[in-house]
Amino acid sequence: MENQQVFELLKRVAEKDEKAIRELYKAFSRKVYVFALNQLRNPAQAEEIVVDTMHEVWKHPTRFRGESKFSTWLLGIARYKALSCLRARPPEHDDIDEMDDVLAGSDPDAFEQLAAQQQREGVRRCMDKLPEDQRECLHLVYYEGASLTEVATLQQCPENTVKTRVFHARQKIKNCLRLMLEKEC
Questions:
Q1: Using CA atoms, how far apart are residues 127 and 181, in angstroms rounded to an integer?
Q2: pTM score, two decimals?
Q3: To 5 degrees, how large is the angle CA 44–CA 48–CA 50?
Q4: pLDDT digits (tens, 9 = 90+) for 23-78
Q5: Are 78 and 49 within 8 A, CB to CB?
C-alpha cells in the first residue's frame, strides 16, 4: 500500500472511521505479527503487539508524517512495544519435553527431522547471542526484506551503522556455527 493511500486512510481514522482502521489492519497486521513473533517467539504476545500497535495508530493517526514508509513507522511502534514486553519477561529456557517428542517420533525420517531441528536451533542460539541491535538488523533485512535505509530509519541510526551491524552479525553467526560444528565432531 502506497503512502498516499495510507494518508487517506489515516485521515479517515482521525475521524474515527472504523472501516479505515480495518483496512490498515488487513494490510499491515501480518507484517507486524511476523516481526513481533520473531522478536518475542510467543504467538499470543505477538498478537498482543499487533493489537497494541494498531490501537496506537487508532489513537494517534496524525503522528505519521510520511518521512518513511508507513510499514517502517508501524514496525517502529511494534519494536518499542516488543522491547517493553521482553524487558518485563523472566528469562526463558528451552523446554526439554519438546526434544523428547522429537526423539520419540515414529516417522521413518525422524533422524532428518532431528538434524533439521538441530540446525534451526543452532542458528537460533547463535542469533540469540547477538547484541539486540545486530539481531534486529538481520531480522529486518533478511526476514522482513527491509532496505538498509528503512532499517536505519527504524533504529534511528545512520545507514552505514546498519551496514556495519549486519556485517558483524553475519561474521558472529558464521563463527558461532563453526564452533558448534567443531564441538560436535
A1: 16
A2: 0.57
A3: 115
A4: 999 999 999 999 999 988 899 999 999 999 999 999 999 999 888 889 999 999 99
A5: yes
At residue 138, what is the residue type? L
Whether the CB-CB separation of 3 and 66 falls below 8 Å is answered with yes
Distances (CA, A) of 71 to 100, 153, 167: 40, 11, 24
pLDDT digit string, tens, across residues 127-171:
889 998 999 998 888 888 889 999 999 889 999 999 999 999 999
Closest CA to 79 of 151, 3, 167: 151
Distance separating the N- and C-terminal Cα atoms of the chain = 50
Which residues contact residue 66 at a Cβ distance below 8 angstroms, ignoring those fewer than 6 apart?
Answer: 3, 7
